[in-house]
């Protein structure tokens, strides 16, 4: 293995996102909103970020997609590298080819006359030939299974469809990293669940890296390999979602524990399921209850 190979960003040894000693304070906040954050994310991970309101989750996402420091003024120290680019020293437009960002409210990024015009919008700023734009938009429509909506006006879409259009716009440049800020907050429980399952499919098909700020840990802990909990701008937990939830009391940090986890912890304490089981869904909990015979332990 030579040095050149090791430097390539898609090498598993090199994190695709590397944050070193990052501190940030908006000019109008008295204290640091991010405080000495150290975080390495490997290509292909699905990382969930949780924490109470105001703990700095959206600010951390902005420090990765470049809105911080490029559009939000403040005191910034430390460094953020995204796929080999130092966020602070490259243009937002260059970062946009690496990171797709899906706002909490897709209304904020859907504003054109038709779905396909919306998806093409980002590409039009890059002097890409029209035929290539067409190809990329068709690809994104296809991946998101929204071909039938290409000529629909955005205001005629349901919230779930808007979410898909926003995702199509965020992957159309072949971005390797997708960032979601509370993607399910406007969706009903059923649509929320299908969105999370869809994000996992997208990850598996495209091999992309995903960061999601999300409160519904019951939904995201099924797909994530990592859960990060922020408190006052610091990382207080970082690990396998099941282990983090079962070994801590996240309500201290303003994070609602999923009902199944709360139940699983009690059954675990009472010896009804193995101490090694960390169920996060009803199916898993029932399977653990059925399969466990305390007397054999
Ligand atoms: N654009 C801004 N200008 C000034 N202060 C801001 C700005 N955005 C956020 N803040 C402040 O930074 C702190 C962290 O905010 P942030 O939005 O990152 O929290 P959050 O964890 O995403 O919260 P929520 O769960 O409510 O979305 C808060 O004190 C907030 O008031
Ligand atoms: Mg937020």
Describe the fold and architecture.
- It is built from 12 helices and 10 strands.
- The protein has 2 domains: 3-257, 3-Layer(aba) Sandwich (Rossmann fold); 258-297, no CATH class.
- The radius of gyration is 21 Å and the shape is globular.
- It has 297 residues and is α/β, with parallel strands linked by helices.
- The protein has a 6-stranded mixed beta sheet with strand order 6-7-8-3-9-10, with helices on both faces.
- The longest helix is centred in the middle third of the chain and has 18 residues, at 189-206.
- The chain binds adenosine-5'-triphosphate and magnesium ion.
- Adenosine-5'-triphosphate binds at residues 26, 28-29, 33, 51, 53-59, 72.
- Magnesium ion is lined by residues 57-58, 181.
CATH fold node name of the largest domain: Rossmann fold
Q: List the ligand species.
A: adenosine-5'-triphosphate, magnesium ion
Structural class: alpha/beta
What is the radius of gyration? Answer: 21 Å
What's the SSE pattern? HEEEHHEEHEHHHEHEHEEHHH
Summarize the structure.
It contains twelve helices and ten strands. With 297 residues, the chain is α/β, with parallel strands linked by helices.
